[in-house]
Amino acid sequence: MEARKRLRWTVIWCFILMWWSLGLTDGSEQKPIRQSVKKPNIIFILTDDQDLHMDSLSYMPFLKEHVADHGTSLQRHYCTVALCCPSRVSMWTGKAAHNTNVTDLHPPWGGYPKFVRQGFNGAYLPVWLQDAGYNTYYVGKLLNAQSTSNYDNPHAAGWTGSDFLLDPYTYEYYNATFQRNHDSPISYQGRYSTDVMAEKALGFLDDALEVDRPFFLTIAPTAPHSNVHIKDDTAEQSMARPAKRHEHLFEDAKVPRTPNFNPDRPGGASWILTLPLQNQSNLDYNDEWYRNRLRALQAVDEMIDSVVNRLEKAGMLENSYLFFSTDNGYSIGQHRRQPGKQCAFEEDVNIPLIVRGPGIPKGYRTEIVTSHIDLAPTFLSLAGVSEAEMTKYELDGSVIPLHVLDSMPSEQPWPQEHVNVEMWGIIMSEGRYGYILYPNHTYKALRVIGTGYDLLYTVWCSNEHELYDMTKDRWQMDNIYDAGSRPFNIAMPTAGLSNQSPHASSFTSTGQVLSIANISTTISRLVARLDALLLVLKTCKKDECRFPWSALHPAGGVRSLREALDSRFDEFYRTRPKVQYERCERGYLPASEGAMWDDGMSFRAMEHEVWTGP
Fold first, then answer.
1. How many C-beta neighbours within 10 Å does residue 438 have?
2. CA–CA separation, 89 vs 80, rounded Å?
3. Cβ of 180: how many Cβ atoms within 10 Å?
4. Which of 413, 417, 418, 385 is nearest to 399 (CA)?
5. Could you report the per-residue pLDDT of 305-318, keeping only the tens digit for each?
6. Helix 375-382 and helix 84-93: axis angle, to 10°?
7. CA–CA distance, 6 with 9 (Å, rounded to integer)
8. CB 293 within 8 Å of CB 14
């Protein structure tokens, strides 16, 4: 009898120990025995048309609680094309839009068919991540013009599991069509699109956690994009539609009345100069448009909460990176504009990027300059792919130094101070007052941000120019381009530089720190440098995109606008070809875009010509 009791208790203790080792003594405390790990997981939440400059992030408490408070907000992150499809293609390929030649939403200039035709279906991020040993999953909108008629011609490559939104129902909040893996499309008429997406995302997350491989999961809701109903080749755009449970929220919210909101005098260039002052009915309508964007984001915020809770429950949160961003920014009323995007103004190009994960500074904000073409190399780096290995992908972007953002020494600053912004084609604003097509919305723009300077320089296809000094004109209201002889001062701050202002020092090519003095120049000398920089960037590839000053000064010694303003280079910059257009085009046609950069335009080439003759 005693032997039988001992045997029974031995069996009971074996079951208890087995349950304890599996972490199943409490169903709410499940711990995986999979993922014996290893490489980190990466989750990327990508919204559609979300603003940074109209306070939308302030209406997402779960994003703040789970991501921002535990991670880093990159305040100077930019898209390089302020339009959905070309922005996403640049993001997934790590290439500037002039190198993808996907420049619009639909064929012949853009869309999913153009992405495939350009050869990127076998040469973009998910394919590379699979080569690095990752399972890859995607839920939501991938690219415009991926539709119920072409989704399998061919299927989007590189995804272990996928559930794509398809046109013509992508932007219908209560009539979405999804297409899973290689299955036929399914309509979810009557169900709220973001909620359906959350279910699918959590399903893929469960699948990913059950496999002994790291994973990359993208969740791409269409919120807070407007609702678009397409019928008989006609698109009816209306306000974003929130879930029923959120329809009553934020009744008093209004578009922030910043100085550039519906200003008394018009500004900008091209068609923007023709915009009328908005009347009260227009303002009231646009405020409601704004409120519905905020309401539509609530389901996204709840989805973030669900994803984080699922990771935490599985014990995988601390080995996962969570990224939050959007494809492009958005504006309502700024510069008298109706709801929309596509301009080079800060509202359209400066966008959210928030990251949490192992080793990421917590509750931190940084102003290093980054862009969407930096995301692919950054994801690859987190997946263990070295920069040397990445060279075969011919990336134009840089790996963002996420783990040292709070400890960057001032004597080794982040070298990137520029963003190249491109646009081609036409522009159409949204809403009841915005159904006007403006042609010739083609331009090259340049954001340059360093210690003592913060500039936007734009050249339109009409050869109009804009230049804004955002150290004094944050809202981009005063175009100073024509004030050629006006003094322009770059002043160093008198207080010590913080590690959040990485443009603290300049260097020789050998790394020797140069002393920095205040610089007094003129608008015309400044524009000459900006024009040369833009000339490089508008056709750059790979290292030229990352280090454009080195293309202009291959012998070294110039790594910033401040250094390029040295008077020794005046003649060189004065004689460089200018950025200009021969004509406006709907897409990227180099023959219409004036002078192009080549190696013979560098300062070294000019010196050689001066000393030895042509």
1. 15
2. 11
3. 16
4. 385
5. 999 999 999 999 99
6. 40
7. 5
8. no
Domain boundaries, the chain: 36-404, 418-612
Q: Which of 560, 538, 517, 563 is nearest to 418 (CA)?
A: 560
pLDDT digits (tens, 9 = 90+) for 228-254: 999 887 888 999 999 999 999 999 999
The DSSP line for 200-243 is HHHHHHHHHHTSSS-EEEEEE--TTSPEEEEETTEEEEE-----
Q: What angle separates helix 280-313 from helix 193-209, to the nearest 10 degrees?
A: 20
Token readout for 576 is 């460089």
Q: Which residues carry out catalysis?
A: 84
Spatial CA neighbour of 81 closest among 353, 327, 323, 394: 327
Instruction: Mean pLDDT check: name the lowest of 36-40, 63-67, 126-130.
Output: 36-40
Identify the sign of the CA torsion 336, 339, 343, 349.
positive
Residue 127's CB is within 10 A of a number of other CB atoms, namely 17
Q: How far is CA 166 from CA 159, 279, 480, in A?
A: 16, 37, 45
**pLDDT for res 16:** 33
| Cis? peptide before 108, omega within 30° of 0 | yes
- Rounded to an integer, what distance in angstroms lies between the CA atom of residue 18 and that of residue 20? 5
CATH class as words, domain 36-404: alpha beta
What is the spatial distance between Cα 395 and Cα 542, in angstroms, rounded to a whole number?
A: 6
Return phi, psi of residue 212, to 5°. Answer: -85, 55
The percent of residues above 70 in pLDDT, for the chain, comes to 87
End-to-end Cα separation, the chain, in angstroms: 107
Q: For 452-611, where are the E strands, in sequence order?
A: 453-460, 465-469, 487-490, 506-507, 513-514, 519-522
| Rounded alpha-carbon distances, angstroms, from residue 356 to 46, 235, 414 | 15, 38, 20
Q: What is the pLDDT of residues 461-502, one digit of tens each?
A: 999 999 999 999 999 999 999 987 898 988 765 444 333 333
CB-count burial class (<10 Å; 0-12, 13-18, 19+) for 597: buried
The number of beta carbons lying within 10 Å of the beta carbon of residue 426 is 14
How distant, in Å, are the alpha carbons of 91, 284, 340, 366 from that of 370?
12, 35, 23, 10
What predicted TM-score, i.e. pTM, was given to this entire model? 0.90
What DSSP character marks residue 141? -
318-339 average pLDDT score? 98
Question: CB of 422 within 8 A of CB of 460?
Answer: no
CB atoms within 10 A of CB 351: 27
Q: Report the alpha-carbon angle 380-320-400, nearest 5.
A: 40
Q: What's at 154, amino acid-wise?
A: P
Cα distance between residue 259 and residue 493, in whole Å: 25
